[in-house]
Design brief:
8-stranded mixed beta sheet; 171 residues
């Protein structure tokens, strides 16, 4: 099945929110406090889409995943307790979620690869991200895909593990 990574449309907000709600429940069932404080919420998703930073992964016509992708736009990263690998322009992504019906197909990895393609298309060779200390699946995904642990950043008072991947330039 063909996958496509593209900007989300406002008409897709309800479908995207359904996917995020499934992920919020999964995080809770995993015993995590990540995403258990009212964030993310439908307003955050609407803002992502309106600002042009909400992206979906589709399988045919079906939305199977979501993430927000921004350029140089994460003020908390300036306060890292640790050290980033680079101080150049960077792409940052947040709110990765895969549809319950499509788990186990490697779609989160496809989203990460699509984000790398997006970064290269903007001539940016650094990708930064963070995750909760108890999100073992995301930490494993980062490590398997060449992300390096760089330290801690804080969101809403909670420490998060910060990662960076430096991309190679493809000529």
């Amino acid at each position: 099945m063909e996958h496509n990574f593209r900007k989300a449309n406002l008409t897709e907000q309800a479908q995207i929110w359904d996917i995020l709600q499934q992920a919020i429940v999964r995080r809770k069932e995993d015993g995590s406090n990540q995403w258990q404080d009212g964030y993310p919420n439908p307003e955050v998703i609407r803002q992502d889409i309106e600002q042009g930073v909400g992206f979906v992964l589709t399988e045919g016509e079906t939305i199977v995943g979501y993430t927000a992708v921004l350029i140089n736009d994460e003020p908390e990263y300036e306060k890292i307790e640790g050290k980033w690998l680079t101080n150049e322009d960077f792409v940052v992504f947040h709110r990765v979620a895969i549809s319950e019906q499509h788990l186990g197909k490697g779609l989160a990895k496809k989203i990460l690869a699509s984000i790398e393609d997006f970064a290269r298309s903007k001539n940016i060779f650094s990708i930064k991200a963070d995750t909760n200390f108890d999100n073992l699946a995301m930490m494993s995904l980062f490590e398997k895909n060449g992300y390096v642990y760089c330290g801690e950043v804080y969101f809403r008072g909670s420490p998060r593990k910060a990662y960076e991947k430096v991309l190679t330039k493809i000529n």
